[in-house]
Design goal:
Layout lengths: L1 H9 L7 H15 L6 H26 L5 H12 L10 H6 L3 H25 L4 H15 L5 H10 L13 H25 L4 H34 L12
């Protein structure tokens, strides 16, 4: 929890990992203790640890900045209000460049609600696999956070091999790899054509970021399907290897 507090202090997004991380910690403690701990008490205790650590770090920053709270608007405020629209591999910058100012606050709320809305549903549906919830959320952060970078994708892809047993159950491996390679090779070229050569425009670069986000979205959704399929086959061994059709 202290590591989560430090990460949340440096960047807002890790705080969304709190629910699945609490479930993961609770499952581990319940497995190694004779008495099953109370879930609510365990969650409140962890919440107190995270809140206390974050507040302590914020107060330390307050002291280091000559007893001023202005650093909050200059750090967290930039991420929350999207003041910097510098092009990146994310989806927000182009959308808000084209956005009318009268709709900006509304769509900021919609985008943030969309990013945080996955946490509750995935934590409930995949209650028995909180580590995979964390892995999937890291992939969603790499797609939908305001200022993503390649390091976010690297972190997600480094967690994914923990579930290498589901790789045979994934359906779109070739398409995913091809899409990511396509975006990786053409992304720098399109950026150069727009920024340096002047022979392109923002649409060139944003189009390739859409392809990049599409590839990551397929990775997240396909791995989620594979985990659910694996869970289903464990519960019903007679259905292992059989085709699934949605009715």
């Amino acid at each position: 929890m202290l590591a989560l507090s430090s990460a949340s202090y440096l960047s807002l997004y890790p705080i969304l990992l709190f629910p699945p991380l609490v479930l993961l910690s609770y499952d581990r403690q319940a497995r190694h203790s004779k008495e099953t701990p109370n879930v609510a008490r365990f969650a409140v205790l962890d919440l107190g640890i995270v809140a206390g650590a974050v507040l302590g770090l914020l107060y330390l920053s307050y002291l280091l900045t000559s007893r001023s709270w202005e650093f909050i608007s200059s750090t967290y405020g930039v991420q929350l209000m999207l003041r910097d629209l510098t092009p990146n591999v994310g989806l927000w910058w182009y959308f808000f460049i084209e956005m009318f100012d009268s709709f900006r606050q509304f769509f900021l709320g919609v985008f943030w609600l969309h990013l945080s809305g996955y946490v509750g549903g995935m934590s409930i549906r995949l209650r028995t696999q909180p580590l995979f919830v964390i892995t999937s959320l890291l992939g969603l952060f790499a797609i939908f956070k305001p200022y993503p970078s390649i390091s976010d994708t690297s972190l997600f892809l480094s967690f994914l091999p923990l579930y290498r047993h589901i790789f045979p159950l994934m359906r779109y491996t070739f398409f995913t790899v091809s899409t990511l390679l396509y975006a990786t090779l053409l992304g720098p070229s399109f950026y150069y054509l727009w920024i340096y050569a002047g022979s392109g425009n923002a649409n060139f670069f944003y189009a390739i970021t859409l392809v990049w986000s599409l590839g990551l979205s397929v990775v997240v959704s396909d791995s989620l399907f594979a985990v659910l399929r694996d869970e289903w086959e464990v519960e019903r061994p007679e259905m292992k290897g059989k085709e699934v059709r949605q009715i």
